Amino acid sequence: MFGSLQTTLFEVYAIWGVLVIAFLGLGYALFLRIQIMRKDKGTPAMQEVWLAIRQGADAYLTRQLKSILPLIFILTVVLFFSVYVIPPTEEALQRFKNFSPDMVRLIVGIGRAVAFIMGASFSLMVGQFGMRMAVEGNVRVASASRRSFSEALQIAYRSGTVTGMLTDGLGLLGGTVIFLIFGIASPDVLLGFGFGGTLLALFMRVGGGIFTKAADVGADLVGKVEKNIPEDDPRNAAVIADLVGDNVGDCAGMAADIFESYEVTIVSGLILGLALVTLTSEIKWIIFPLLVRGIGVLSSIIGTYLVKGKKGNESGDALGSINRGFYSSAAISMVAFMFLAHYYMHEWRAFFSVGVGIVLAILIDEITKYFTHTHHAPVKEIARSSQTGSATLILRGLSIGFESSAWQFVVIAATIMAAVVIYWGQPVIYVLYGVAMTGIGMLTLTGNNVAMDSFGPIADNANGIGEMARLEPKARKIMADLDAVGNTTKAITKGVAIGSAVIAAVSLFGSQMGVAEGLRLLNTGIRVSEPVVFIGLLLGGAIPCLFTSLTINSVARAAALIVDEVRRQFHIPGLMEGKVKPDYKKAVEICTVSAQKELVGLALIAVVSPILIGMLLKVEALGGFLAGVILAGQLLAVFMATAGGAWDNAKKTIEDGLYGGKGSEAHKASVVGDTVGDPLKDTSGPALNPMIKVINLVSLLAAPILIHYRRTDPRVIVAILICTILIGGAIIYSKHGALSFKQRKGESGF
Fold first, then answer.
1. Cα dihedral sign for 642, 213, 322, 470?
2. DSSP readout, 326-348?
3. Is 566 in contact with 239 (CB distance < 8 Å)?
4. Please, what sign has the CA dihedral across residues 259, 546, 238, 738?
5. How far is 465 from 248, CA to CA, in rounded Å?
6. Of the candidates 559, 543, 596, 546, which has an alpha carbon nearest to the alpha carbon of residue 676?
7. Rounded Cα–Cα distance for residues 517 and 528 (Å)
8. Which of 265, 282, 496, 591 could bond to 439 as cystine, CB 3.0-4.6 Å?
9. 485: containing domain
10. Percent of the chain with pLDDT over 70
11. In whole angstroms, what separates CA 263 from the centre of its chain?
């Protein structure tokens, strides 16, 4: 059963049970969707705004799909033929022992290519279906806010839960099906599955981030600062693009981002688990992570359904209710893990590993909440700094962002140290397995985490719909409260996504060293004192900096085009008086085109750079390169996400009446800070998560191939030249190669 692996009856039933749980999670998502779609969509004015948001989001995703399909096709072919470069692994030959080596190559090649397509398709489904559910939910939240806080909260959270359970169900389904088919040969195929999900997440995260922040920055700079009008004023031509951007960035992008973290942690856990099966002949090492994930899906179903507000029309504690659901799921999971460790694993180290992961998620949750929530000192201090101008406000936000990054680094370091202590005295492969289990434990409550994230843009959109449809003050107050909580939940989820990216990258890093040359690098380590390895480390640290620079530059270019367009439309006679409607579609089109033209170049840098380093400097230097990417990527990602979230919430506290409220000098300073922070927290910072994992997975795929070729091989020399040209061209294009929108479309417009 399960590809030449000896299993007990319990293990057979358990694996099939995990498959059933995956479908149960998907069924729960469908149940919630049916429940939400029965709710009313409010007044005709609300539905008019909602329809514009839906059409813009659909148009963006359709265009994005057309942009990325050619690269997906090319990489599918490359992954299929990659198995022909080196001999089949011993595990593959053992799994398919009745076939010839050539036939084994064909089977594994097809499996890897199909798994890549499956991973990419699942990631795309999570992003697209989740975003469309968020769009369906936002107008229903706005309508419910006219009746009660409790109903509005419930609809917003359950709309996000649909995305969360899609993430849970599809991630668990893919990993389980691959294991059922390929057994001990699963690592060869799982890499394709993880790479597909990660690459799509990179596309959706970067494209959605550029779209949303170009619209947001452009709308804020002209609307709030220059014209002194509200955030979602219908006279602002970029307001619909801004609301669309919340969905394509924070729903589609983040959902795909967390989904690929979910995939990658199970991929690394199964790869390292299969390595332990080889050493110990015990299949429990790969059954355990699948069972943990199954338990996580069940606990998320229970916890998310418990999230409800208090009855009545008055605003309640939305964050407290969401947290109760999260902690309920965590408690259920911990108890179940204890039983699993005692009665199945017959040892407690596995429980402590996944338990540490859950604790890590909670700690990152609390750290992020402290630095970004309006009730705590950091955001209050930023708001206070607005009284002396935008410069001091920005400086205060930078300080808080760096401090948050330091504390999260300490927590993650302590987490990895816990894995070392748990498996003290065991070979390093056990420690790496413990780190992988920590990542799996951290993302046990993925359903809750994604629900929390999607809740943010759903509440934000509902608030925008309420303002544009001019709903009554009581409803607007409920939506504003939900929107403020949504800012914090988005920041929390970004922290979890970044932390999980680092944990997953560390476990993949260990897998890469083991795969590279048997277990030689695991046993000997990588010496940073070696000049070539240190060069790899430096170059790895440079990649996140370069990636951040290019993504911020992309947002700045696109935002400048939006600023010009919004300014132009404000000169249309009758627009400021409300007699004429602005052309919302033009701003949406500008953001869509600007976002799509950046995707391929940035993806090429992530895919090609580890291959180039591996060919030039060999496998040990590639290990140093990965360490540099993880280190610099984590620092930058946490800093940008936290600083941006804190600036945003500081602005909201001032808009609620602090230091003069809307229109005051303090408010103008806070808008500048929020505008600076927007591309950091919603584009560049989150984009580093999938970038780190794309680089790790490409390294893992390439490592076995790289050790079979010398740099003097003519084929390698040609490959090095091609990779150098691709990276250089991608950088030049991302910095200078894209023509402005008017140059692309002509001065006459669309």
1. positive
2. HHHHHHHHHHHHHHHIIIIISSS
3. no
4. negative
5. 17
6. 559
7. 18
8. 265
9. 9-743
10. 94
11. 12
Contact 296, 333 (CB under 8 A): yes
Place of tokens 């697209």: 128
Give all strands (DSSP E) within 246-352, no chain letters.
none
φ/ψ of 96, rounded to 5, equals -115, 55
Residue of 342, 517, 504, 500 lying closest to 432 (CA atoms): 504
Tokens encoding 212 = 């949303």
Plot region of 527 (φ>0 → left; ψ -120 to 50 → alpha; else → beta): beta
Band the pLDDT of 743: cuts 50, 70, 90.
very low
Q: Are 458 and 427 in contact (CB under 8 A)?
A: no
3-class DSSP state of 527? coil
Give the per-residue SS3 of 645-700: HHHHHHHHHHHCCHHHCCCCHHHHHHHHHHHHHHHHHHHHHHHHHHHHHHHHHHHH
Question: What's the whole-model pTM score?
Answer: 0.86
Cα distance between residue 216 and residue 300, in whole Å: 33
Considering only residues 721 and 69, tell me which one the structure prediction assigns the higher pLDDT.
Answer: 721
User: Given pLDDT bands bounded at 50, 70 and 90, which one contains residue 750?
Assistant: very low
* Element holding 149 (H helix, E strand): helix 149-182
* DSSP secondary structure of 382-439: HHHHGGG-HHHHHHHHHHHHHHHHHHHHHHHHHHHHHHHHHTTTS-HHHHHHHHHHHH
Q: Is 2 within the bounds of a domain?
A: no
Is residue 732 packed enough to be buried (19+ CB in 10 Å), middle (13-18) or exposed (0-12)?
exposed
Q: Which amino acid is at 522?
A: L
- Is 25 in contact with 301 (CB distance < 8 Å)? yes
Cα–Cα distance for residue pair 464/460, rounded to 1 Å: 6
Tokens of residue 127, six digits: 């992003």
| CA gap 705, 89 in Å, rounded | 12
- Please give the Cα distance from 222 to 671 (Å, whole number): 11
> How many other C-beta atoms are found inside a 10 Å radius of the C-beta of residue 686?
32
701: nearest Cα among 13, 63, 196, 317: 196
Nearest to 541 by CA among 692, 378, 744: 692
- Spatial separation of the C-alpha atoms in residues 320 and 307, rounded to whole Å: 9
Give the burial string for 612-628 (b: 16+ CB within 10 Å, else e): bbbbbbbbbbbbbbbbb
Q: What is the mean pLDDT of residues 443-447?
A: 87
Q: What is the distance between the alpha carbons of residues 624 and 618, in angstroms, rounded to a whole number?
A: 10
Structure tokens at 67: 């942009």
Nearest Cα to Cα of residue 474 among 314, 658, 656, 312: 314
| pLDDT tens digit sequence for 556-592 | 888 888 888 888 888 888 888 878 888 888 888 888 8
Counting the structural domains of the chain, the total is: 1
Query: Would you say residue 748 lies in a domain?
Result: no
- Residue at 525 is within a domain: yes
Residues 6 or more apart from 106 whose CB is under 8 A from it? none
Which 3 state secondary structure label does DSSP give 310? coil
User: Does 42 reside within a domain?
Assistant: yes
For 43-74, what is each residue's pLDDT tens digit?
Answer: 898 998 888 888 888 888 788 788 788 888 88
Closest CA to 251 of 302, 193, 207: 207
Within 10 Å of residue 231's Cβ, how many Cβ atoms?
22
Q: Is 186 exposed, middle or buried (0-12, 13-18, 19+ CB in 10 A)?
A: buried
pLDDT more than 90, % of the chain: 27
| Contact by Cβ (8 Å): 244, 60 | yes
- Residue 77's Cβ-count burial label (10 Å; 0-12, 13-18, 19+) is exposed
